[in-house]
Specification:
By secondary structure, the protein is an alpha/beta fold. It contains 8 helices and 9 strands. The strands form 4 sheets. It has a 3-stranded parallel β-sheet, sandwiched between helices. The protein has a two-stranded parallel ribbon with strand order 3-6. Strands 4-9 form a two-stranded parallel ribbon.
Length: about 220
Amino acid sequence: CETEVSKAFSVNAIGTLNVARASAAFDIPVAYVSTDYVFGGDRERRNPYFEEDATAPLNVYGASKLAGEHLLRANANGWVVRTQWVYGPSRHGGNFVETMIRLAEQGRTFSVVDDQLGSPTHAKDLALVLRGLLHGSAAFGTYHATNTGTATWYGLAQEIWRQMGLSPDASPTTTEAFGSPASRPLYSVLGDGLLADNGVAAPRDWKTALADYLSGRTAKA
């Protein structure tokens, strides 16, 4: 997204507009999945971002998703669902959990960012929220949907290794030292109280969700 800005906005903004217009033409509500990257949280913040808080994206991805939010709201009935740090089974590549397992099993020496704080989210739990919105009676609007609890990327990695019985040669590092083409919020925890207020069950604790994912992974293996 940082290097192909026009493509990022074509997909996340114009693509969303096309879906919104088509959905409105047939009076079909839309659930648009957005991101914590619409916020610009700094390291000093320690209060979750709620749905009504001001947005301030730090990177092109966040800006393009925020544009998609605005276009969805202006052109169709539906729900903007912000989530973060999503992992789940994929036929087209890995995810953070699989990467941490692979690096540990390969005996690699590596570092993991330890100064970004968020809520790891199992894709299955996000899907349950989306189903609850689509098939329930929740008001149209903006919702936050993540597993509960918080961690840094390194904290998440440590829990993965603990549950898998792995002891890699890994160390924590900073966002600045790790380097990335995109600026990332150091604190982007999302508060999701509106789900329960609208009859949708909030996702479970992130460690429990991770254990569920890992058990499914082991069963398939």
